[in-house]
Specification:
194 residues, mainly beta, Immunoglobulin-like, 2 domains, five-stranded antiparallel β-sheet, four-stranded antiparallel β-sheet, 13% helix, elongated
Length: 194
């Protein structure tokens, strides 16, 4: 009996360690390094297929845009021809937007890890005339506007530190609506149908 109990505990421990290994394997791995003075190497593993990668200049002009077609992505950004200034590497999926700052000088490119910005995107669920909006844990203020199919504002709100907020949308006319969320100077959009 004691041997069976010990064997059962060993089997449970092996199963638990297997689950832990699987959980660690699914965590996103991210690496951003510089090589050859003005080359920035981006390497990501265990990411969501469809993750958008973009590079913008100080004015917000899009310099590069791509999507990860699988759960891995790698890219070398050769910045030798870039003028001095700030660039912003943006990694965006359905849940969040991460923005990293890259400073380009005449001789090198370097990352400013202190200036990383992470915005957790709001998510929307609709059921029985009620719209629930879930806000990221780290978001303190978020603006919300609901536009009807003519582009008119049907509703707007300024949300403080709530993690979830309910809205009665039963009185809105049937149709398609565009929801614009604004957090930390960025806009995110959801389309809903009532």
């Amino acid at each position: 009996m004691k041997k069976q109990f010990t064997t059962a505990l060993a089997a449970i421990a092996l199963l638990a360690s297997g689950f832990t290994a699987t959980a660690n394997e699914s965590e996103r791995e991210f690496s951003l390094t510089t090589e050859n003075q003005k080359a920035v190497v981006l390497q990501m593993n265990n990411i969501e297929a469809g993750t958008q990668i973009s590079l913008r200049d100080e004015e917000g002009k899009l310099l590069f845009k791509d999507h990860a077609s699988s759960n891995q992505y790698g890219k070398v950004f050769n910045l030798n021809q870039m003028e001095e200034g700030q660039l912003y590497l943006e990694i965006e999926n359905a849940e969040k937007l991460e923005v990293m700052s890259i400073e380009v000088t005449e001789t090198e490119a370097s990352m400013d890890t202190e200036a990383e910005l992470v915005i957790e995107k709001p998510s929307v669920r609709i059921s029985d005339g009620t719209m629930k909006v879930y806000f990221g844990e780290n978001e303190s203020v978020c603006g919300m506007k609901i536009y009807d199919n003519l582009g008119s504002v049907a509703f707007k709100d300024q949300v403080g530190s709530a993690s979830m907020k309910r809205y009665d949308v039963s009185k809105l006319a049937e149709g398609q609506y565009e929801i614009q969320f604004t957090a930390k100077g960025r806009n995110f959009y959801h389309t809903i149908t009532l």
